[in-house]
Amino acid sequence: MPLFQFLLVVVLVLNSLENGSAGITSTYIRTEWPSTDIPLDNQVFEIPKGHNAPQQVHITQGDYDGKAVIISWVTADEPCCSNVKYGLLDNKYEFSAQGIVTNYTFSGYKSGYIHHCLVDGLEYDTKYYYKIGEGDSSREFWFQTPPKIDPDAPYTFGIIGDLGQTYNSLSTLEHYMQSGGQTVLFVGDLSYADRYQHNDVGIRWDSWGRFVEPSAAYQPWIWSAGNHEIEYMPEMGEVLPFKSYLHRFPTPHTASRSTNPLWYAVRRASAHIIVLSSYSSYAKYTPQWRWLREELTRVDRDKTPWLIVLMHAPIYNSNLAHYMEGESMRTVFESWFVRFKVDLIFAGHVHAYERSYRISNIYYNVSSGDQYPVPDKSAPVYITVGDGGNQEGLAGRFWDPQPEYSAFREASYGHSTLEIKNRTHAFYHWNRNDDGKNVPTDSVIFNNQYWGSNPHRRRHLKAGGHAGS
Ligand SMILES: *[C@@H]1O[C@H](CO)[C@@H](O)[C@H](O)[C@H]1NC(C)=O
Ligand SMILES: *[C@@H]1O[C@H](CO)[C@@H](O)[C@H](O)[C@H]1NC(C)=O
Ligand SMILES: *[C@@H]1O[C@H](CO)[C@@H](O)[C@H](O)[C@H]1NC(C)=O
Ligand SMILES: [Fe+2]
């Protein structure tokens, strides 16, 4: 072919790699279970047998660096007992920790006794067995602590959002449990219990706690809150936002100097994970804004190269559903995300899957400036995983044409996995429920935003005095 034509082809191919012109709108037609909640008498919600038997067992990271867990569970009959026995051997529990018990009411519903127990001072990279409950009703579980904080510590996170408790939710959970994920980054909207009335709201929180136990009792789920956690229901006399969520799902917020459990950070293996609240104030000078400003300065990419942010309402998403609901947070935080070279921002809320290119829109102001998102190598990739499978169904309509910032989008149920390999590389997959576990549908290899693709590059930059630009 003539040289000119050859060059043109090369330029077009390079172009499509560099910016958003090659975005994919997947037309995959998914088979769908009905979007209705699984009936309460189904075995996925089975109540464990025995007087006061612990149920709804779930764990979350309990400190900043992964040497503690918070173990939570509910007992129906008595407030006794909030202690955890634990140790390195099955059936032989050398240690014990004492927790606390709480309870609450919600429009006629009275919760069971909700126990939270901090188990700290753990060794890294160690399997612990634990036992809760008394006598014949006691139950045993285990978890594995993460490797110690290290820039090259490999670790696999699962990312799940908007889960609910339908047959699609069950499919997502089962697929996730086969994925090899070691910790879940949960991007909000847990039970969808707020779709119910009065007594049934609390009952559906309880059923959801039992539903996720097969995963959440054995590995931490890092929680963030969505709009379905707000439960501002004045018509039922309930006006205290996040009442059920805050009673049931504690977070280690004080370890990251946060004053509110709805926003906090944890470090795990080679990742620094920042959890934001889309439904708390974040305007300039508010507590969340001030906390994030401080927390970003505490990120040490030499120790935790992977900087990940979780929130519920996506900042970049081209679905018709909830379009631009993340815009107010974008105007406040996007320039920080770019300046601090955040690697990935995961969100939920929109019931479909979408991944962006690295783009930013930080040059616009009300007087002038570039008003469209532009390719930006320092910007995060934005990923929406609101496709857990709740009873509201899929958000199947996207803006057409696909915006240039959108790399891949599809309205199917599923979850993602992020396999961090070392300081430079992470393998990312979105897994559609309808495929077998080995058929990742959208796969990308991410180079770290701080180290790039070269584990020595940063040091050279530093030696040359150009680091942190
Ligand atoms: C919590 O449990 C105690 C002890 O059973 C009970 O007296 C109290 O009324 C309960 N509180 C709420 C808010 O349900
Ligand atoms: C607004 O944006 C333009 C173009 O980026 C820039 O030159 C100008 O200084 C900005 N104005 C303010 C007040 O930030
Ligand atoms: C990091 O992981 C990638 C992907 O497995 C590999 O190609 C690369 O050689 C690794 N780098 C180092 C320094 O081990
Ligand atoms: Fe939502």
From TrEMBL:
Q: Return the InterPro entries for the record.
A: Calcineurin-like_PHP (IPR004843), Metallo-depent_PP-like (IPR029052), MPP_PAP (IPR041792), PAPs-like (IPR039331), PAPs_C (IPR025733), PAPs_N (IPR015914), Purple_acid_Pase-like_N (IPR008963)
Cofactor names from the entry are:
Zn(2+); Fe cation
Reaction catalysed by this enzyme: a phosphate monoester + H2O = an alcohol + phosphate
Q: SUPFAM superfamilies from the xrefs? A: Metallo-dependent phosphatases, Purple acid phosphatase, N-terminal domain
Q: Name one GO biological process term.
A: phosphate ion homeostasis
Domain Calcineurin-like phosphoesterase residue range list? 156-353
| Domain Purple acid phosphatase C-terminal residue range list | 379-437
Purple acid phosphatase N-terminal domain: residues covered: 54-145
Q: Which residues form the signal peptide?
A: 1-23
> What is the protein name for this chain?
Purple acid phosphatase
What is the originating organism of this protein?
Manihot esculenta
